[in-house]
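Entry 14. Structure prediction run on the chain below.
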Amino acid sequence: MAHSRATSRQLLKIAEVCDELDIAPSTFYEWRAKDCAPKCIKLPNGSVRIRRADLEAWLEDREVAA
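Output returned:
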């Protein structure tokens, strides 16, 4: 259970999300400007992170039935 909790709290950098989704950072920022990117967290130092759990939920919301 502890591993699951740690994974859900994992914070990903935008570059990591872009690598995983095979998209350019500019595409991610475009999605973010259109308010259709995964939920982001802005840290006090100005950097942006995405929770692993939020990315997974975002992907599930976009699944289409085959």
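The chain has a mean pLDDT of 90.
Filed with the rest of this week's runs.
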